[in-house]
Amino acid sequence: MNFDPTEGQLRWRDLARDFARTEIAPRAAQLDREQKFPYDIVAEMARLGLMGLTLPEEYGGSGGDFVGYNLALEEISRADTSVGITMEAHISLGCAPLAAYGTPEQKERYLAPCASGESLWAFGLTEENAGTDAGGTETTAEIEGGEWVVNGSKKWITNGGTDITAGVTAIARTGLRENGKPELTAIILPQSTPGFSRGPGYEKLGWRASDQRQLYFEGCRVPEENTLGERGRGFSQFLQTLDAGRVAVGALSVGLAQACLDEALSRAKERHQFGRAIAEFQAIQFKLADMAMEVEIARNMVLKAAWMKDQGRPFGREASMAKVFASETAKRAADQAVQIWGGEGFMEGSAVARYWRQVKINEIGEGTSEINRQIIARSLLTESPEEVKTKLTAQ
After folding, report:
1. Which residues are part of the catalytic machinery?
2. Where does the Acyl-CoA oxidase/dehydrogenase middle domain lie (predicted)?
3. What are the tens digits of pLDDT across the range 183-224?
């Protein structure tokens, strides 16, 4: 086994790390406080190739691999998860389905401006009664005169309403299957489509400088050619999209957990009690050791899942494992960071207080921890113990 990243992967990691440290981290507290989308930061990330990192070069992307993307995303999220989720949702949820399932014409028209980072693209799955349960989708689309007529709404859609958002790929009910279950189809809806409107941005605990809002479709008409992939394949497409997204949210969580460890280490060395730094007390040392071990494990889980995707191997179970463990690691790290900072960590102005607010959403977005545990358990129960062991240890 070789755990060394390639030169290309290290270049992406180091590029993201340098940019995050110099341009994002110094403004993270202000971005959180003002809750304004950082257009200038996103524009510079686009110029550096970060906003199209895994997307095809022929359409303006950077052509990087999935491991390099997750290494870079960790560094961006280490500085600020608001910027991290903007990058993740644009690449993993918005653009990746266009790249995977789009026709050459669709890629040229919709993917190219987004792959370069000039525009953002969103993915519309979640509704009031649908998300993980895609069968509850109430947004509908019907063919009339060669056009899809889309009606319904989506909620909690990241990058759905910025000034540079070009559109959304929405999952809609387009009929019933023979077994009585809904037929789901992915449909491309440009932002300028008549009848397409957006609600105000949400007031959130975390990700406060990123854009999440409701989207509304009232008689939105787009050509039938705006079907992404095959009609009725929307369910399969969103499952594959979420697998990759879960790995990326794992990387985002590792970045936040590492930021918590950074702050905890700094505080433990600087604060003195009873005539010595609190880092010299065993109780604090054990907290730091546990945080470091969990961050390292989570990082390796994320990178293994990313590597499996790059190798073309099935990685759904590993994606869920990485997402659950990394998000829960980040929560424990945030809690311990506040504990080590003590009263100062309870103050809104401290970085660890901001991390503590931000961390909870990682256990919810891209599939809750409960749903991902079900995915893991079901995959274990459908295979023999030897098959499970082989897959879990394969490199």
Report:
1. 366
2. 122-220
3. 999 999 999 999 999 999 999 999 999 999 999 999 999 999
